[in-house]
C-alpha cells in the first residue's frame, strides 16, 4: 500500500511549469562522443541513469564530474570518469558479465586500440577540419585527408564489421560520425562513394544498427550546431583547438 504523500499533485504548475518546459530540450544530443558511450551502454545492456547537462555551461556539478568540462562523463561509485573511449573500455572491465565489445585475445585487443587511436588522430581531426574550413583549397586538402584516413581504416575492416561478424568498440567509436557525415555531403563536397574500399556500405550498416538509431536525435537540432561549425563560428574546445592547430581535447 502506498503512503498518503503519494497522492499529492506531482507536477510543477504555473511559472514553475514554464521553467520546467524550458529545460526539456536535450542539450548534448549533437555530441558524437556522447553517442559513442551511449551506444556502448545500450549494446552491453548495462543499467544506467541518463542525465543531461549543457556542456557549454560549465556548472560546478558538471565540472566536478569532468574537470575538462566535456561530455560524456560518468559518475560511478562516487568517482568521476570521462573521455568516451576510456569510458567504453571501463564499461568492458567494470561489467564483465555483459556482452563483450572487445575481442578476447590480447593481440586483437591491441589491434582494436590501434584503430581507435587512428580514429582519434586522423579521422576526427580531418572531419573537423573539413567542417570548419572556409577556403576551397583548405576544404579540398581536408577532404583528401579525411578520405585517406578512411581508406586506411577500411583496409582493416573485415566486414560486415571491423572484426568480421563481431560488433566491437572499434565500430561503436566511429558509428556516430556515420549519422553526421551528411553535413559534409551537403556542404563540403564529401561523398561516401569517393572514399571507396566499402566505406559507403560499412557506414550505412553502422548507421542503421539498432543501438545507433536508438541514440540518434533529430537532424534539425544537429543542423543548428553544425551551422556554427560550417561558418567557423563554433566556440567549443574542439573548434578552438582545430582553429589553433592544436590536438582536439
Ligand atoms: N575527447 C573527448 C571529447 C568530448 C567533447 O569534445 N565533447 C563536446 C561535445 S561533442 C563538449 O563537451 N564540448 C564542450 C566544450 O567544448 O566546451 C571524448 O572523447 O569524450
Strand order of the largest sheet: 1-2
**Count of folded domains:** 2
Assigned CATH class of the largest domain: Mainly Alpha
Proportion of helical residues: 55-70%
Bound molecules: glutathione
Query: What order do the helices and strands follow?
Result: HHHEEHHHHHHHHHH
What's the total number of strands? 2
CATH architecture of the largest domain: Up-down Bundle
Classify the fold: give the CATH topology of the largest domain: Glutathione S-transferase Yfyf (Class Pi), Chain A, domain 2
- Count the helices. How many? 13
What characteristic shape results from the CA principal axes? Answer: globular
Q: What is the CA–CA distance across the termini?
A: 52 Å
What fraction strand?
under 5%
**Whole-number average pLDDT?**
92
Rg, nearest Å: 20 Å
- The poorly predicted ranges are none
Structural class category: mainly alpha
Main beta sheet: 2 strands, antiparallel
InterPro entries: Glutathione-S-Trfase_C-like, Glutathione-S-Trfase_C_sf, Glutathione_S-Trfase, Glutathione_S-Trfase_N, GST_Omega/HSP26, Thioredoxin-like_sf
Pfam family, one: GST_N_2
Protein name: GST N-terminal domain-containing protein
Domain GST C-terminal: 105-242
How would you describe this structure in keywords?
two-stranded antiparallel ribbon, Glutathione S-transferase Yfyf (Class Pi), Chain A, domain 2, 2 domains, 57% helix, binds glutathione, 249 residues, globular, Glutaredoxin, 13 helices
Walkthrough of the structure:
By secondary structure, the protein is mainly alpha-helical. It starts with 13 loop residues before the first helix and ends in a 5-residue tail after the last helix. The longest helix has 27 residues, at about 105-130. The radius of gyration is 20 Å and the shape is globular. Strands 1-2 form a two-stranded antiparallel ribbon. The chain has 2 domains: about 25-95, Glutaredoxin (3-Layer(aba) Sandwich); about 105-245, Glutathione S-transferase Yfyf (Class Pi), Chain A, domain 2 (Up-down Bundle), CATH 1.20.1050. It is about 55% helix and about 5% strand. The chain has helices spanning about 15-20, 30-45, 60-65, 85-95, 105-130, 135-155, 170-180, 180-185, 190-195, 200-205, 210-215, 220-230, 235-245, and strands at about 75, 80. Bound molecules: glutathione. Glutathione (GSH) binds next to helix 4 and helix 13.
Amino acid at each position: 500500500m502506498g503512503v498518503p504523500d503519494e497522492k499529492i499533485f506531482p507536477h510543477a504548475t504555473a511559472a514553475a511549469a514554464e521553467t520546467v518546459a524550458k529545460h526539456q530540450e536535450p542539450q548534448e544530443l549533437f555530441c558524437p562522443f556522447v553517442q559513442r558511450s551511449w551506444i556502448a551502454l545500450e549494446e552491453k545492456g548495462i543499467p544506467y541513469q541518463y542525465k543531461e547537462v549543457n556542456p557549454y555551461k560549465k556548472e560546478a556539478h558538471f565540472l566536478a564530474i569532468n574537470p575538462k568540462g566535456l561530455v560524456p562523463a560518468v559518475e560511478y561509485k562516487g568517482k568521476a570518469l570521462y573521455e568516451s573511449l576510456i569510458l567504453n573500455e571501463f564499461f568492458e572491465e567494470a561489467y564483465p558479465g555483459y556482452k563483450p565489445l572487445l575481442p578476447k585475445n590480447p593481440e586483437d585487443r591491441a589491434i582494436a586500440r590501434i584503430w581507435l587511436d587512428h580514429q582519434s588522430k586522423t579521422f576526427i581531426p580531418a572531419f573537423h577540419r573539413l567542417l570548419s574550413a572556409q577556403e576551397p583549397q583548405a576544404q579540398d586538402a581536408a577532404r583528401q585527408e579525411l578520405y585517406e584516413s578512411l581508406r586506411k581504416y577500411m583496409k582493416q575492416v573485415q566486414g560486415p564489421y571491423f572484426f568480421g561478424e563481431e560488433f566491437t568498440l572499434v565500430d561503436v567509436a566511429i558509428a556516430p560520425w556515420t549519422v553526421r557525415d551528411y553535413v559534409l555531403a551537403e556542404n563540403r563536397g564529401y561523398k561516401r562513394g569517393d572514399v571507396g574500399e566499402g566505406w559507403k556500405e560499412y557506414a550505412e550498416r553502422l548507421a542503421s544498427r539498432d543501438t545507433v538509431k536508438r541514440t540518434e536525435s533529430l537532424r534539425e537540432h544537429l543542423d543548428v550546431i553544425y551551422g556554427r561549425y560550417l561558418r567557423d563560428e563554433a566556440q567549443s574546445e574542439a573548434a578552438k583547438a582545430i582553429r589553433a592547430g592544436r590536438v582536439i581535447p
